[in-house]
Amino acid sequence: MYLFYTPDIATSHTLSEEESQHCVRVLRYDRGDEILLTDGRGTTYTARITNPHPKHCEFEIISSQKQEPHHHFHLHIAIAPTKNIERLEWAIEKCTEIGVDEITPLLCRFSERKTLRLDRLEKIVLSAAKQSLTPYLPVVNDLTPFDDFIQNHSAKRSFSDAVLQSAGRSCSPQGGLYIAHCYEQDKRELKDEITLHSKLSTLNSITILIGPEGDFSEAEIDLALKNGYVPVSLGNSRLRTETAAVVACHTAILLNE
Predict the structure, then answer these.
(1) Which three-class secondary structure state does DSSP give residue 226?
(2) 3-state DSSP assignment of residue 179
(3) What is the mean pLDDT of the chain?
(4) Distance (Å) of CA 247 to CA 9, 34, 223, 254
């Protein structure tokens, strides 16, 4: 069954013009047909079409069900836009299908793309969420300068240091904050870090930074480390920006299912 997005369902039982057109003209739903809706905040609704108008399709709700989140933590992928916008759009689409909760495009020192159409990215996220039948719509933030992002997130803490220390492991006070880069320096494996914290039940959010084609600058990495980010590797291969984002997202979700 196709999933329709209705963020204003609490106040309106009418599909948007775009959703109405797809429902009535493309999928050819008619009066009396049942459809599946979501508000994007975790609730799905079974509804019946009462007025199959191609611009403002009306419906009545038959039942509703609050869906449990796919995972027990908040997954935030912050990624520098690629020069080829289609690569970024592909990454955002796939991360949405996998289960990301929040996406922030990062403006970095070596970024080759410095402008974005947020409305375009939001449409891609919406389409991917509906295609994968997820009732939770990820948040897409505006393009954010790297330094601003680090400063705004440096106060967030995802892990209990006391629990980690009792396990014989030391961790930055900003646990759950990771920066993936390709410089030759001491780095941990993302999969190992997430597995450890998942077993200790200390995980409530993960933020992973993915750099541009030219990688993060040394100054950016230094700033991130000073603010509690842990340098991580995503494997032995050198990955493209968009591939790294998908691998990071999948690793975080898979190891916490």
Answers:
(1) helix
(2) strand
(3) 87
(4) 35, 37, 24, 10
